[in-house]
Design goal:
This protein is an alpha+beta fold. It folds into 2 domains: 255 residues, Orthogonal Bundle (Helix Hairpins); 138 residues, Distorted Sandwich (Glucose Permease (Domain IIA)), CATH 2.70.70. It is built from 5 helices and 13 strands. It binds zinc ion (ZN). The site of zinc ion has 5 residues, from loops.
């Protein structure tokens, strides 16, 4: 009979080796009931701890990837808007340059016409002076040289001046027109050059935005791939845990502690607080956003408030769990019924201790996989988690 029990345990331990994953408190029970297997269980326990730590690390990395992805998406959207605005700016400048080009063409034509007119008038004037000189009717040089004195010269040049005044006035007007057209052309040329420079800057800005946009896109792509890899790893870890749960049931039924007699009576509520922040059952993981199963209830009790044993029994676990429970306690009430209290700030009992219903076994905290102070409370029947609310009367 004894060797048969040993063999059953040995098979279970072998199965453990195959799956490499089991809850810490299972190991505690095995140690408690079968000291011969203690060493193997201890090494399995440390292996399990490492796997749990890895899972926690994966979840944390996944969370940081999601955060990075979300910020990159925001950046990409901002870049998208900036590119759009810059494109509109470039379009506007292009239109402006086109309008300035048309204006420059018109003014250039005006200028050419003015220059031609001026040139022609100048030519005509020179031709007339040459004819006058050839006819001997007037000689500019002669007038100046034949003057007796300065006053005389002035009189004579005034005379000749009267003759050519019409021509001069015309030429002056033409020169003024040409100059004003030249000025106008210059200012348009300047404006155009300015717009061309602005356009060049905008095109460079747009190009740099487009590069950043492409970078953000490829970052999102690679983050998506990375997140996918982590999700796959997490799925595998969760599968391994499911297998470990199946092993846990077998172990508890063979350990003998389940065949003991139940201490009797109803369970009492384990805290003063009664507000439940998360019920037993399927829920969306707040970190991975994936559906997962919540194996207990979360009671929104304040940091440091007392946690009471739900019933009398023997403390079979009082310690740290890398599984995510943080500081936690498991009380065996006999008859295969046990209760689990997690995320304690402080444990107020010890392994092997006998507790009475209502004894303070710990204080509420947020240790382990927790985002704020609360009591995670589980009721286990032969190692299977069950809905704790089925054990409490409403009201
Ligand atoms: Zn919980």
């Amino acid at each position: 009979m004894k060797s048969k029990t040993t063999r059953v345990v040995a098979i279970a331990v072998a199965a453990l080796l195959v799956f490499s994953l089991v809850f810490a408190f299972v190991a505690e029970i095995v140690m408690y009931s079968q000291s011969s297997a203690a060493q193997t269980v201890s090494s399995l326990n440390s292996k399990l701890s490492k796997l749990d730590a890895e899972k926690t690390k994966i979840q944390k990395e996944l969370k940081s990837i999601e955060k990075k992805k979300s910020s990159t998406m925001t950046k990409k959207a901002a870049l998208d808007r900036q590119i759009d605005v810059t494109e509109h700016e470039v379009e506007t400048i292009n239109e402006l340059i086109k309008a300035l080009d048309t204006e420059v063409a018109t003014v250039t034509e005006e200028l050419n016409t003015a220059l031609a007119k001026e040139q022609k008038e100048n030519d005509d004037f020179l031709a007339r002076v040459r004819i006058m000189e050839e006819e001997g009717s007037v000689s500019m040089l002669g007038i100046i040289l034949s003057a007796d004195n300065f006053s005389d010269m002035l009189t004579r040049t005034e005379l000749i001046g009267d003759i050519v005044e019409g021509d001069r006035a015309l030429m002056r007007t033409l020169a003024e027109t040409r100059s004003s057209i030249e000025q106008k052309k210059k200012s348009i040329d300047d404006a155009r050059a300015q717009q061309a420079q602005a356009k060049k800057n905008l095109v460079a800005k747009k190009s740099s935005l487009e590069t950043q946009y492409k970078e953000a896109n490829s970052l999102i792509k690679s983050l998506n791939m990375e997140a996918h890899e982590y999700e796959k790893a997490l799925n595998e870890a969760e599968k391994a845990q499911e297998q470990a749960r199946a092993e846990l049931k077998k172990l508890l039924s063979s350990s003998g502690s389940n065949s003991s007699t139940y201490v009797g009576g109803d369970f009492r509520w384990p805290t003063k607080a009664t507000y439940i922040t998360s019920y037993y059952g399927s829920r969306k993981d707040p970190i991975t956003k994936k559906s997962s199963f919540h194996t207990g209830i979360d009671i929104g009790a304040s940091q440091g408030s007392e946690i009471y044993a739900a019933n009398s029994g023997k403390v079979i676990v009082a310690g740290w769990s890398s599984k995510g429970y943080g500081n936690y306690v498991v009380v065996d009430h006999g008859g295969g019924k046990s209760t689990l209290y997690a995320h304690m700030s402080k444990i107020k009992t010890s392994k092997g201790a006998t507790v009475s219903k209502g004894d303070v076994i710990g204080l509420v905290g947020s240790t382990g996989w927790s985002t704020g102070p609360h009591l995670h409370f589980e009721i286990l029947i032969n190692g299977n988690h069950t809905n704790p609310m089925n054990y409490f009367k409403k009201g």
